[in-house]
Fold:
Amino acid sequence: MSVPPPATPAPLSARAPRPAARRALDAADFDAFYQANYAGTVAVAFGLTGDRGEAQDLAQEAYCRAWQRWAEISRYDNPPAWVYRVTVNLARSRWRNLRVAAAHLVRQRPTDVPAADPEHVALVTALRALPMDQRQAIVLHHLVDLPVAEVAREMGVPAGTVKSWLHRGRTELAALLGEHSGGGEPVPPQDVRQRGDRQRRRRRGAIAAATAAACALVAVFALQVIRFGGHQPPPPAQTPSPSGSVSLPSAPPPSPGPVRPVDAGDPILDVDWRTAVVTVPAAPKCPSGRLTFREAEGRTGTPVITSGGGWPRLFLSPERAAYGDLTGDGTAEAVLHADCLSGEEDSGDGSSHLLVVERAANGALRALGWAGERGALFRSVWVADQVLYTEMHPWHTGPQDYRMGMAYGFRWTGKAFARHDVSAGYPPVLPTVEGRRLDLTGIADRLDCAGLPAPAGAVRPVFSAEGIAPDGDREWSLIPGTPSNGPHLPRLLPDRRPYLVLLVACAPDDTPQASTDVQPGHNLVVFDTAADGWFAVARVPTAAGHTVSSWQVTADGLLVSSGPAGGGLSVEHTYAWNGTSFAE
Structure:
């Protein structure tokens, strides 16, 4: 006998508010986190700005933003790292805003050179006092903005060693700069929470006003349709991504196109990118024309295009290339991750792009053009049915409509790569829409739910836009992870379309009777597509009771970092997927 799916829960606005005890616990947890890490955050900000007051402002703003998302951030394996990252981004934004003023001041500078700023002297002195390894790791990660994996590659050590150096270096820097960067007692944590709540209310008010204005426009348009005979406009060329609880047609959505393997004799596979010569079209702050690759010094395996040895330069990552026929001529093109740097001090923030290169019959290499939105994070790229697919996350710029599970498509028009709607095959998973559910039934007995027994019957939770799904005695939640996490649509097998990988947490339902201090169980789950959504095929075999902090796809498989829920060092494991199960 089939088990009917669970009833759709009431909208969030209609549900009872979270218990006061839980809210008080959240506030107390945040206050302890703030007081324990504030000094270190100010020290990092001071290291970026050299100004005590500016460092305090940046740190307070970062913690305001952390409080607004505390329910999510508190689940991270390393919440301080999130705050440090926001602090770095805020500092960079302020640097950009001050560039024009700084240029003007340089032109107007006096002939007399003022005495050195004591705070600047203290900063330089503190950095010099750190061991060389710690100093280099902090500069590469926090100033040059390289991810931990890149820093590890640059320094020739494991990623865990880099994390240890960063932790010890930040602690030592905070102590060395205490006198200059502390500036007395920090702002009370309740003031930071109140400021964060005000920002959230203002943002919601702005969204509500925009929604009301949109509704008014729709009403006016409807009246015009009725007035002029009820003729309906043609449907849009692309179906927008759902933003609320909506229904899809009852017919099954079209299956995503297959990823066909590139013929082993295709000439594009014979290109040695370390010595290649490519004709590149123009792009902002990028070199163009006939450019020559050479292997970048200190960046093993990553070639760099130079223009006479000067700047700007174009960095490509051929080890992450995707191949497939995008023009319909029967031969494959290469889709390469690209970063344009304008000078030695340019970190490359906001410069990521995709460059599509073809090889002519005479062996010449020419870039057809750029694809994707510049400045986004391209977590996964593949080619199917002459369409370039990518999981494109917003970062410095990029699509603001992105949600977990979405992919973006681009098709070659003969002149450029234009957006192509692929939402039917890769729709967002939040919120749950009719006909597109996540089915956990097949692996329900293997899911970690903070000590709760495996549920009986079908497990097809209905998630809100916030990623929460009440389900009897438990509550499921989808954790989006940090930007450093790997893709939600990874290529676990090279000649197959992506799977869907989600971090699914499970804990006792949020009721007054339930314990409020239970750490949710973390489950990294692999889904395959079905006519009515996605069905779970496997749980990545991380240890029960461990929280998953990140995952990446490597040549050897899925690299997952996880550690004990109560704290402690994370451990990295690589799991190879054979299509039915994982092997470590």
Notes: The chain has eleven helices and 21 strands. The chain has a mean pLDDT of 75. The CA atoms of residues 551 and 560 lie 4 Å apart. Residues 189-227 form the longest helix (39 residues).
